[in-house]
Design goal:
The protein is an alpha+beta fold. The chain has one domain. The chain has a six-stranded antiparallel β-sheet with strand order 2-1-5-6-4-3, with no helix packed on it. Strand 3 and strand 4 form a beta hairpin.
Length: 131
Amino acid sequence: MAQKKFSIHDAQIITTQDGYVFDSFIITELNGELVEFDRRRELEQALTVALQSEKLPALSITPNRQLQHFTVQTDVRFLHENKKEHTEMELVALDKPGLLAQVSQIFTELNLNLLNAKITTVGEKAEDFLF
């Protein structure tokens, strides 16, 4: 979505026990405006092509110079869970274009399964809970 110049403000990702994935995203244009119909169609087509492909699309994200003015420390913490079937992780980082794509790529490279995620953007800070 970063390559298409969309901003994810909130997301919920749920994986069922039988392997179905339900993703819900609240997105806007990078400037915070609502996504118009033509742009929604463009995103729909891009997602369909990407998800039908065997190979993940390469990440090509242009750095945003405006983000240099913010100082959000990246913090990755594993929360202690009594449940042994999953590990819960909290990620706090500067909200930048492609952050979610980078996290997804790392999970894919490490062959990790995502059961549930809550992605939240608060100003310039992304607060993500993944397990």
